[in-house]
Amino acid sequence: MHVHAYGAHAGDRPLEALTIERREPGAQDVSIEIAYCGVCHSDLHTVRAEWGGTLFPCVPGHEIVGTVNAVGSEVTRFKVGDTVGVGCMVDSCGHCGSCNEGVEQYCENGFTGTYNGATADAPGHTLGGYSRGIVVDQRFVLSISHPAEQLAAVAPLLCAGITTYSPLRHWNAGPGKKVGVVGIGGLGHMAIKIAHAMGAEVVAFTSTPAKRQDATDLGADSAVVSRDAEEMAAQANSFDLIIDTVAASHDLDAYVALLKRDGALVMLGVPEHPHPSPNVGQMIFGRKSIAGSLIGGIAETQEMLDFCAKHGIVSDVEMIRIQQIDEAYERMLRSDVRYRFVIDNASLDGAA
């Protein structure tokens, strides 16, 4: 079936209106009319071929919220009219150790990304949520229980939300734990909200003094200016967990010094250039660790959505029409958004 979409034919070309082909729903498939799609930094890097390996035409988008408009004959989890979401994955091998344990994001044979992943469907790779519709195996479709008026702000939970929820859960953030969040952007603002709702003491780290109030408004108990040596020193050896959302290369030692014995600094961003090598000594003498975390499995993503619905958590968003996407990318590069762009996919109806 033909679907209106927006994408690019080359990394040095702007996004434009496209008509793409979606498969007819198979027995296990769910067809979704997309209402909203969040805009992630990964979209920009991929569509502009900055990471290499981009398959064109490229239709980005992996923070998808919409309504089921058809289901396959063997679908049991969803029905027409359900409000659903699709995140960063639409398939995995289903039989490796990671898949068997419900952490498909670590699939040992490689999960299939919602866009730019190999697929039997034309054109040979997946096309994402900057489109009016998508067809996804029911195993990778998520139920959304937030009220209708919040659905646009739910979309970024499918990437930014789960990317921060997963390490907070894995490292047991909660009452009696002190959690730091480095960077107050698309990921960081979600980490603050979720850690606060989990009951942890939350301290935000920002290089910009003007963002101190933003951090506390989001739910942080306090904020530290990372460039202020005295403020940083006052936090030494006090954190159980620090979530680092900054994708630029920076000094990790400054944050390792703030961890308690057995504390963990968890990295969520991949820098363009490697971070300076950390001081192994202070890790050894405090049994401290630097770790990484990647999105979350399907079961954990559903858990996150339910948790956020229960606690009234959504992303802070700015709605755009699809025709504004290149402008939005430029603003995103300048950090000129609080804190996530979301596309009104109805704007695609007049785009082609």
Explain what this protein looks like in three dimensions.
It contains eleven helices and 17 strands. The chain has 352 residues and is α/β, with parallel strands linked by helices. Strands 3, 4, 5, 8, 9, 16 and 17 form a seven-stranded mixed beta sheet that branches. The longest helix is centred in the C-terminal third of the chain and has 14 residues, at 298-311. The protein is globular. The mean pLDDT is 97.
Can you tag this structure with a few keywords?
single chain, alpha/beta, Quinone Oxidoreductase, Chain A, domain 1, Rossmann fold, 2 domains, 6-stranded parallel sheet, 24% helix
Structural class: alpha/beta
- What share of residues are in beta strands? 25-35%
Overall domain count = 2
Number of strands: 17
CATH-derived architecture of the largest domain: Alpha-Beta Complex
Q: Order of helices and strands, N to C?
A: EEEHEEEHEEEHHEHEHEHEHEHEHEHE
Q: Superfamily at the CATH H level of the largest domain?
A: Medium-chain alcohol dehydrogenases, catalytic domain
CATH class category name of the largest domain: Alpha Beta
Radius of gyration: 20 Å
Topology-level CATH name of the largest domain: Quinone Oxidoreductase, Chain A, domain 1
Which shape, going by the Cα principal axes? globular
As residue ranges, the low-confidence spans are none
Outline the biggest β-sheet. 7 strands, mixed
Helix coverage percent: 10-25%
Q: What is the rounded distance between the termini? A: 15 Å
Mean pLDDT equals 97
SS element count, helices: 11
